[in-house]
């Protein structure tokens, strides 16, 4: 069964597309702005063709987004029947720093998995598709900026990954393929080596491969690419994989306005 995957750091819809925007648009990290919804609509059109989407730097609904839960908004606009927003750092009304999951497949379980780090708050988003030892494990991550913390986080995740045969790891890892911490992860798991030519940052002149989709050797990769979509300071990275059909069950590929997005809760058994 083919499965289309996408990982995207959307920078809360700020649309930083030039170096000077980091200075001139800093206020958008704290306050709402008129173009943010338009940027989210553009992102919705990018993610719509995919089956499972991992989102980083989304906001769960605070002052800066006009109290719009961005994961929920994208699920509604792109007609994803299942979505989940995991708040990793809660700054009250000022910011709700989160990871997001959009899915056209029904997870059997989803939970928050804390990660070690110098600054508390980093957690992986875990979702299971199917049941039993052959289930597919989804891991959504946004790793720390510091190498020491990344090494600890990836070592911690390796222990989880090695308990499953079919695993997809998606997110902004803040390190490149070929880095010491990436090499260590690959050496201690059954994850396939990433394509180091897929540069995603910065979006206007990409020369760093920070965003990754990694899969275990039991999954067959048929396509991987970076999309030239300039709505964030990161470019989205996409991959098509072949997954054993019995893991996922029915695979709905077409959605109409009659489908309603369902928010998945922590430790949700559907």
Termini distance?
A: 22 Å
Largest sheet: 7 strands, mixed
Briefly note the CATH topology name.
Answer: Deoxyribonuclease I, Chain A
Helix content: 10-25%
Cα-atom radius of gyration: 17 Å
Count of individual helical segments = 6
Order the strands across the largest sheet as they lie in space.
10-11-1-2-4-3-12
Range of strand content: 25-35%
What's the total number of strands? Answer: 12
What can you see in these coordinates?
By secondary structure, the protein is of the alpha+beta class. It has a single domain, classed as Endonuclease/exonuclease/phosphatase (Deoxyribonuclease I, Chain A, 4-Layer Sandwich). Helix content is 19%, strand content 30%. It has a seven-stranded mixed sheet, with helices on one face. A five-stranded mixed sheet has the order 5-6-7-8-9, with no helix packed on it.
How are the secondary structure elements laid out?
Layout: E1 2-9, H1 21-24, H2 36-47, E2 52-59, H3 70-77, E3 82-90, E4 96-103, E5 109-114, E6 123-129, E7 136-142, H4 147-161, E8 166-172, H5 180-188, E9 211-215, E10 220-226, E11 237-242, H6 245-248, E12 262-263
Task: Describe what is shown at a glance.
The protein has 270 residues and is of the alpha+beta class. It has helices spanning 21-24, 36-47, 70-77, 147-161, 180-188, 245-248, and strands at 2-9, 52-59, 82-90, 96-103, 109-114, 123-129, 136-142, 166-172, 211-215, 220-226, 237-242, 262-263.
């Amino acid at each position: 069964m083919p499965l289309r995957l996408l990982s995207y750091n959307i920078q809360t819809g700020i649309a930083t597309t030039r170096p000077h925007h980091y200075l001139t648009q800093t206020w958008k990290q704290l306050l709402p702005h008129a173009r943010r919804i338009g940027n989210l609509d553009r992102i919705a059109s990018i993610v719509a063709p995919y089956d499972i989407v991992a989102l980083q730097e989304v906001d769960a609904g605070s002052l800066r987004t006009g109290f719009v839960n961005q994961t929920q908004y994208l699920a509604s606009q792109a007609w994803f029947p299942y979505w989940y927003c995991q708040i990793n750092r809660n700054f009250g009304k000022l910011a709700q720093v989160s990871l997001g999951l959009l899915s056209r497949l029904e997870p059997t379980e989803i939970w928050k998995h804390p990660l070690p780090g110098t600054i508390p708050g980093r957690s992986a988003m875990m979702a299971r598709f199917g049941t039993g030892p052959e289930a597919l494990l989804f891991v959504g991550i946004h790793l720390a900026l510091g190498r020491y913390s990344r090494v600890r986080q990836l070592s911690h995740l390796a222990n989880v990954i090695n308990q499953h045969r079919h695993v997809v790891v998606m997110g902004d890892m803040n390190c490149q393929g070929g880095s010491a911490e990436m090499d260590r992860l690959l050496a201690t798991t059954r994850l396939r080596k990433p394509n180091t030519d897929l540069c995603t940052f910065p979006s206007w002149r990409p020369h760093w491969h920070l965003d990754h989709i990694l899969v275990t050797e039991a999954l067959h990769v048929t396509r991987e690419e970076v999309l030239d979509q300039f709505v964030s300071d990161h470019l989205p990275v996409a991959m098509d994989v072949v997954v054993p059909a019995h893991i996922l069950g029915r695979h709905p590929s077409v959605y109409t306005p009659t489908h309603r997005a369902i928010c998945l809760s922590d430790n949700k058994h559907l």
